[in-house]
Design a protein that fits this description.
Number of strands: 16
Strand content: 35-45%
Shape: globular
Largest sheet: 5 strands, mixed
Order of helices and strands: HHHEHEEEEEEEEEEEEEEE
Number of helices: 4
Distance between the termini: 52 Å
Bound molecules: copper (II) ion
Helix content: 10-25%
Amino acid sequence: MNRSFTGLKTRASAKPLAKISVLGAVLATGWAGAAMAAGGSVTGSVKLVGKAPAPTPLNMKSDPFCAKQPQASDEEVVVGKTGELKNVVVRIAKGVKAAPPAPKTPAVVDQVGCTYNPRVVVAQAGQQVEIRNSDQTMHNVHTYKGTATLFNLAHIQGTPPHKKSFPTVGDVIKFKCDVHPWMTGWVLVTDSPYFKVTGADGKFDISEIPAGTYTLEAWHEKYGTQTKEITVADGKPIDLKLEFKAK
Ligand SMILES: [Cu+2]
């Protein structure tokens, strides 16, 4: 950074006005921001094709606190009126050469209303994942990679978050609560900030991707994984329509 900054000052010194504006931009955005503002983008939508399963109401009567929560439905498959599929992770899975480091701010999984919120979270490898308990009841955070337990921690109401990180890119970590068997959550581990999780509208929008050729992956907890090769170019947005088939 010092070397670049010195060069900037040398070039700018010939034009005092330019010096002020360039330095102003650097101060406003940070040097990294100023250098990395370019890149391409991938936007699109994910739909479920075929008959979506009917929502299953959750029975939370086994815990007096949970029983008082608003009636919720199982969120394994959340589909809009015309198939918009929620909770799909869309990410650049392969081809990122120099990803920015994992953010210092944690990814957050909250236990609230006796469900995981959000249900699907993406973390960069090494990024802290803060697991909160906002409920006035005890949960336990039982995580699995495949069928193997990673950790299993009691989470008493009013106690601080558990702080964990996951080192292995590509891992799909399942969260279960042994107290409340209806609770399911997911953390996917990736190697870059180039990802989104679809909301209720099924849409995603990933920006500032350095130009290059990549494997884009879309993952859904029930419908699995699909991949697509894409070539990203500066200033040429890619728009994708992805579909999963109901089963
Ligand atoms: Cu629980």
